[in-house]
Design a protein that fits this description.
Chain A is of the alpha+beta class and 137 residues long. Chain A is 22% helix and 40% strand.
C-alpha cells in the first residue's frame, strides 16, 4: 500500500524571484539552496530548505502557463502542496479506484523523480502534487 | 538570532470537515490525529500529521471571520503556511526592523504556544503564521 511520507515542498507563485527572496531569505533568515530553470515546465524555481521540507518560489517564464494565469487571476501566493510518496504508481492506481480526479493520468518522469498532479476539484481546492524520489525508491 | 526551524503546518480552508477528510484521510491514506474546536478563533480544526509537519483542515464556525470570508471569496484551498521558530519575540523584533508588516504586533499566547501572523503584503501574498512551541523553548 503506497503511502505519503512527508511534505516535500510548498510552492509559492511569484512574479519576481529576487523580490520574493527579499522576504524569505533576507527578512526571515532562510537559506537559498539554489535557483533552477526548468524549461520543460517554463518556470524558474528558488529552492529554500526548511526543516525536512522546502519552500519553492516558482516564477513563470512564459505568460501562457497555468502558473502565469494563476498569478494574473489571483496574484502571488500559495500555489501547490507537494506530498512525497513511496510509490507513485501505486498511489495513482489507488486514487483512481477511489474516484479521485487526476490532472496527469500517468506520472511524468524527470531525472531522479516521478511526479503527478491531483485535480483541485477532488482536494478541497488544493492543487496537490505527488512526488516519488527515485533514488529513495 | 531567532530562526525558522521547520514547516509546522500547512492550513487548508474548508467548509465541511467530514467532506474534506474524505480526500485527505480516506483517499490519500493519511491519519487524522484529532479534531479540535478553538472558540477564540471561531474555527474547528482537523490535525493530520504528515512526516515532520501537519496538514490542518480549518473550518470556520462563524460567517464573520477572515477565514469564512476567504472561502466566500476564493473558495476552499490553501490558506496559510505556519513556520515554527525558536524565538518568536526575537523574530518579530527582527522582522519589524526590516520593515515587514505584521498582522499581530505582539504574539498571541495560547497554552503551549505563542503565535503571530505576518501580513501577506510583505510575503508575496502568502499568509504566514509564526509559531513558537513553549515546551520546546
Amino acid at each position: 500500500m503506497s503511502k505519503v511520507i512527508k511534505v516535500n515542498h510548498v510552492a509559492i507563485a511569484v512574479d519576481d524571484l529576487e523580490g520574493a527572496l527579499k522576504f524569505w531569505r533576507d527578512d526571515l533568515g532562510l537559506e537559498l539552496d539554489h535557483v533552477e530553470t526548468v524549461p520543460s515546465e517554463k518556470v524558474e524555481v528558488a529552492f529554500i530548505p526548511v526543516g525536512d521540507s522546502e519552500i519553492e518560489l516558482v516564477k513563470p517564464t512564459s505568460d501562457e502557463t497555468g502558473l502565469a494565469k494563476f498569478i494574473q487571476k489571483r496574484g502571488m501566493g500559495l500555489h501547490h502542496l507537494c506530498l512525497q510518496v513511496d510509490d507513485i504508481d501505486g498511489m495513482l492506481i489507488n486514487l483512481r479506484a477511489k474516484g479521485v480526479r487526476l490532472i496527469s493520468e500517468e506520472p511524468v518522469e524527470l531525472p531522479g523523480r516521478k511526479m503527478a498532479f491531483i485535480h483541485p476539484g477532488s482536494t478541497n481546492g488544493v492543487l496537490v502534487e505527488l512526488y516519488e524520489l527515485l533514488s529513495e525508491a
